[in-house]
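Input structure tokens:
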């Protein structure tokens, strides 16, 4: 593993985190063990979204001296979308990824995505619904149903054609990530749809990659709050485009 410098980082991995004290340590151990076995340089950016537990203390104590780990602590919670955006705009890599802190998609998936990005693909997104995907542990039925409804509504309202918008594992070429995330306006869970809508209107090709996925019961999603705000977000995307806010 090559040491990361400001000019030589090959891959950046952004992990949005909110009250992840109980699992972020194990996840980072898994991530670092894998990435340090690879031949390229990398950085892991944990964006703490205003946690009120010991997430930041744990990361500072365990990884404060690791040059491959960067912690960006936000003073207040703004939402997963804002956390991912901050990480993407700070990232120094040639290839930028974000992953949920629970590693529902195994970190060992990175080489497959990286190979697509290195061979001309601009954006690669994980799909649990493409042929070849394997769901080892399903979400509760209501969450799985609502995720499907959200994807179908996103496709209809935003004229997209994706099988899975909400899977939290996506990779980008640097220049594309910087352009899309610099235009992002939504902070909540609907940011996935916004980024892919921006990719569509900018003409970037998006590749869906079937993945292995395992639900983690300790989800931070609150159906009563996040589902409603995400659905409203689809309307805001259309309004923002109509008003010319995406440039």
């Amino acid at each position: 593993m090559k040491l990361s410098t400001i000019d030589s980082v090959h891959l950046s991995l952004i992990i949005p985190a909110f009250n992840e004290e109980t699992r972020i340590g194990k996840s980072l151990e898994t991530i670092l063990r894998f990435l340090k076995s690879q031949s390229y340089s990398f950085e892991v950016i944990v964006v703490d979204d205003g946690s009120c537990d010991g997430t930041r203390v744990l990361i500072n104590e365990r990884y404060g001296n690791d040059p491959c780990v960067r912690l960006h602590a936000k003073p207040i919670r703004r939402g997963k979308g804002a956390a991912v955006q901050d990480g993407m705009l700070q990232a120094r890599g040639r290839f930028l990824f974000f992953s949920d802190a629970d590693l529902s998609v195994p970190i060992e998936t990175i080489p497959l995505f990286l190979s697509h990005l290195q061979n001309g693909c601009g954006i690669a997104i994980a799909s649990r619904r493409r042929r070849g995907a394997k769901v080892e542990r399903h979400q509760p039925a209501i969450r799985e149903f609502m995720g499907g409804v959200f994807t179908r509504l996103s496709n209809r309202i935003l004229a997209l054609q994706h099988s899975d918008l909400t899977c939290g594992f996506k990779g980008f070429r640097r220049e594309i990530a910087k352009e899309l995330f610099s235009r992002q306006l939504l902070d909540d869970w609907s940011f996935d749809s916004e980024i892919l809508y921006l990719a569509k209107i900018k003409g970037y090709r998006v590749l869906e990659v079937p993945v292995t996925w395992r639900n983690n019961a300790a989800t931070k999603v609150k159906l009563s709050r996040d589902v409603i705000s995400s659905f409203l977000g689809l309307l805001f995307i259309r309004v923002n485009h109509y008003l010319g806010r995406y440039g």
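Confidence is low (pLDDT under 50) at residues 1-6. DSSP finds eight helices and nine strands in the chain.
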